[in-house]
Amino acid sequence: MVRSTHRARATGALGCSAFALAAALAPSPSVAQTVAPETSSEREAGADDGEIVVTGSRIERAGFDQPTPTTVIGAVELRQGQRSNLQQVLNDLPAFRPTVSTQVSVGNTSSGSAPVDLRGLGINRTLTLVNGRRFVGQNNLNYVPLGLVSRVEVVTGGASAAYGSDAVAGVVNIILADKIEGITVGGVSGISSRGDGRRYGGDITMGTSFADGRGQLMFSGEYVKDGSVRDRNSRRNLGSAAIVRLDPASTTDLRQVLVRDVNFGNQASAGLITSGIFAGQIFNDDGSLRQYGRGTSLAANPAATPFPGQVIGGRDAVGLYDAIAVTTPLERISTFGRVSYDFGSVKLWADATYGRSRTAYPFLPDIGAPASLTIQATNPFLSPAIRDALRAAGQTSFTLGRFFDNQFRLIYDAKREQKEGAIGIDVDLGGSWKANAHYSHGEIDFAQRVRNARIVSRFNNAVDAVSSGGQAVCAINADAATANDDAACRPLNLFGLNAPSAESLAYIRGTQRNDTTNKLDAASVEVQGDLFSLWARPIVAAVGAEARWEEQISRSGAADLAGAYGALNLYGSPISGGFNVKEAFGEIAAPIFDVEHKVKLDLNGAARYSDYSRSGGIWSWKGGATVGLFDTLMLRGTRSRDIRAPTATELFAVRSINIGPLVDLDSAGRQAANPAYNPAPQQVTTFSGGNADLVPEVSYTTTFGATLSPKFMPGFNLSVDYYDISIGGAITTLSASNLTLACANGSAAACGRITRNAAGTVTEVASNSQNIARFKTKGFDIEASYLMQMSALGVPGTLRVRALATHITDFVFDTGVSRVDSAGDVGSSTGNAIPDWRGTLSFTYQNEWLGLDARARYVGKGKFNHLLVDNPATTTLEGLVNNDVKAFTYLDLGVQLKASEDFTLSFNVNNVFDKDPPISPTGPIYYDAIGTYFTMGVKANF
């Protein structure tokens, strides 16, 4: 367990004295702290400030150098860029993949969540903790008030033995300030250079001691409202971009090109007629027609395909991403309260948290609606002139291509509400021995609504309009003798952008709904202390036990369960279930050799046994060593076996059944063995969904590196660490046909999911979640920092320089069907894209009244998708012609002005030079989609 005894103000800033202690305790730059101006309260409390011990493990002991690399994010990183939540702070770091963010979540239901993804291995493989314990909002950092965050420790190696499941990629441990005196109130406001993406918010943090300092009461609350950037075409390269043929008519040149403004050529928002005498015309709002402003056709034979699926440009043409926002909005409240009392050898504490987040915005057009509709020439919503012309031409119907945005756009509305309470005890057992225990219970209520959703049966009724008694009515109601009428039906007019009536829209639309509750109960007890002393220092051990009970309960609406919303029926299979795990763990740190100022050797080992209620017992372990030389160089290395248990979704997703044809890709030799074998059976039963038989993934991680703190250059630190992570039995889902291919490629797990009859023909396939994939990634983490007292130059204050970089050499995902190494791919729509280089370089000047920040964020050059290259073995030209993406560097600037002892103003500019992202068919992951963004803040201490 990692614990800070430092007294911090509500800003989470670390005082200068704390920095000196931390630097003395840890020569590696990975544990270097940051410097920020002290408040008067901090200086008054500074006399009895405790030490900060950054361990990356459960051993809390100054003097031991832990072998697991740990990067510390302090006050400077927390304030840089004036980010709206902790997730965005971490996403700026090169070791994290911004898999989920406000500009990636558009068009999907992850909007409103804020998880982090260390190493790009998936958000489920990064364990997040608060003060060393799990929380019910696990890996949703919207629930953590920034005002209380003292620092964040990022363990960048496997840590399951110390912390448990999900720590495959590493651990994000959020350390909150544990002692606050006074009140701090802050406010912030931001806006882009284009006048959109507005953000404002405020926070309050307060604390006081009582009972002569033995008791402490603290509270922090934060409110943020982050506006959406709606207009995608306001940002260059973010419109409806797509990969298209460079020469669609050629049979020998199959090259492709990524271009902007790729639109539909066979549908329009106002309705495009694509057949008959009026082909090529669209409707005005009054029902009249005008010529369609078409774009440049991408059909192989434009003359034979007047209305192609894709065109470039076009006055009236529209693309899918024209109707999708750049960023998603969010309104959230995060609160945290703590009370503690120190009886001397026993300290009791209790935490309570409450958080609520809400996102509501138009997130998708109705892409499930038919793109082409057959309209009868007698449709009463057609003008008399159009009906007469159709009758004269002998045309009884025509086809209409309509893009269902505007009034038909789906509205995603989601509210998450998190509640948690925890109680704990810390006990001094005498000597070096101490113990702690805690219990927590938390719940998240997640209410999702998709408003404006099209009810398929009602839409079909409303589109079929006829005339009755001089009025437009639904055809099902025109004949009083029929029994399938619907008195509520209102006919739908699709001839014009704003032609549909409010009554018809109300009839065809419904609200998809799902309510999910996640519960977490967690208990832990731990004891640690010195076992005995060797010739160097004492051997320290920590042992303990943990237990968790996780449950998910999900409920959907009756219409959702009935599949009323067709292809976009999102909540037809609610997921419910639960599991528990009981664990025992131990860790030991042994000093083997210690010659003061010359040589120092420490060994570290940890083991954990986890007993899962659904999959049984499994071991995880870690071993490592550090060698210190001359108080200047430290070498370190670890080897660990880590695990990730399956989630409730992977375990309990509702089973569905499909019966249909299959192409057997594992057919070699079967026909010869049995002539009755059928390689393409037409009636194969395929089961999909969750899999209650899933077992934990197993990962092996190797790290080794060195840290350098040269005596001839005080204040300078450098570390370089290599990592190699290999995950076996990774959970994924394959199609039925791909399962047969995986079996042919040697996957025993895939073969076990296929049932064959006596002739060898496939009869049944279980294509649900399975432990059949593999991940493998390798790379280097580099960190350098330099802290200089400017007094040497006759200038007050300090200058701090810090550089962080990650170089990825391999990132392989092997499903048993395909093996793809995506290291160096940076395309926004490329699976597992991850740059081979990312880095940040920051300069911070600080004195008593002024702070200046400058930060450069770097994304290395790469391929949009390395698989889109020419194959020299073929005679045709292939590949993506603009596959190369240049390197990007963003500059962020910030200033903090201490106007008085207790009043601070701040101003930040992100993406100072307003750099456009590369052409992005979807939301760019690594690149700034908003452009230049200004933020101003104020903070007052009382």
Describe the 3D structure.
The radius of gyration is 31 Å and the shape is globular. The longest helix is centred in the N-terminal third of the chain and has 10 residues, at 16-25. Among the domains are: 236-327 and 366-412 and 450-512, no CATH class; 655-688 and 734-767, no CATH class. It has 13 helices and 45 strands. The two termini are 33 Å apart. By secondary structure, the chain is mostly beta strands. The protein has a 22-stranded antiparallel barrel. A four-stranded mixed sheet has the order 1-3-4-2. Helix content is 9%, strand content 44%. β27 and β28 form a beta hairpin.
Low-confidence stretches: 1-51
Distance between the termini: 33 Å
Q: Which whole number gives the mean pLDDT?
A: 89
Number of helices: 13
Number of strands: 45
Percent helix among the residues? under 10%
**Largest sheet descriptor:** 22 strands, antiparallel, barrel
What portion of residues belong to β-strands?
35-45%
The coarse overall form would be globular
Structural class by secondary-structure content: mainly beta
Radius of gyration: 31 Å
